[in-house]
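ARCHIVE CARD
CATEGORY: sequence design from structure
SOURCE FIELD: tokenized fold
FIELD CONTENT:
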């Protein structure tokens, strides 16, 4: 069975989980950890999207939410603050309105970002930032 490496957003420990898993219980802190990847392709509003997987806002997507994920790719629109463990990419035509905390940020030509950026090697987790 294929596995992928991810992390626990609560304690920060690395986890090795099945690529088919939607959630797991962290063996270190015993919290439920969502590990699924999300794709938003229409209008969607929610208080928080939190996953140890990735999030892609498709070109037709319009998301209003706080976001805490491993990787974020924006082709459409996202309104809300984001905390990302890996890389944030805003594609041409993509728009992010909100503050960004991540170790890597790529804003491609034609993309828009309105907010404050905090780029540091180890983006804070829930406990330390």
């Amino acid at each position: 069975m294929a596995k992928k490496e991810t992390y626990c957003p609560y304690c920060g420990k690395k986890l090795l989980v099945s690529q088919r898993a939607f959630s797991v219980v962290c063996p270190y802190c015993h919290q439920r950890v969502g590990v699924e990847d999300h794709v938003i392709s229409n209008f969607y509003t929610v208080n928080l999207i939190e996953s140890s997987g990735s999030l892609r806002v498709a070109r037709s997507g319009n998301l209003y939410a706080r976001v805490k994920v491993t990787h974020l790719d924006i082709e459409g629109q996202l309104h809300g603050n984001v905390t990302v463990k890996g890389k944030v990419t805003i594609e041409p035509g993509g728009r992010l309105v909100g503050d960004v905390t991540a170790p890597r940020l790529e804003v491609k030509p034609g993309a828009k970002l309105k907010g404050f950026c905090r780029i540091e090697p180890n983006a804070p987790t829930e406990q330390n930032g």
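CARD ANNOTATION: Confidence is low (pLDDT under 50) at residues 123-129. The chain has no helices and 17 strands.
SHELF: design records, drawer C
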